[in-house]
Specification:
The chain has 72 residues and is of the alpha+beta class. 43% of the residues lie in helices and 24% in strands. It is built from two helices and four strands; from the N terminus they run E-H-E-H-E-E. Strands 1-2-4-3 form a four-stranded mixed beta sheet, covered by helices on one side.
């Protein structure tokens, strides 16, 4: 499973770049993708918004390690 780790990135960096990274992996056929958000509620919201914009679906959210698995 491909992972995109957002640790160390600012909210603005993620807003600017995440959709492009997700589309790149989508076009390469790399699904599922685990997006590691950490425990930041704002970062999880940014990721959820990006997924909604791309019409990708979440299969699970792990609150223990702060990750979201994107399935399609």
């Amino acid at each position: 499973m491909v992972e995109i780790d957002l640790h160390g990135l600012t909210h603005e960096e993620v807003k600017d770049d995440l959709e492009n990274k997700l589309l790149l992996h989508y076009n390469m056929g790399n699904f599922p993708i685990r997006v590691i958000t950490g425990n930041s509620l704002m970062m999880k919201k940014i990721v959820s918004t990006a997924l909604e914009n791309l019409r990708f679906k979440k299969s699970s959210i792990n609150t223990h390690n702060g990750s979201i698995v994107v399935v399609e």
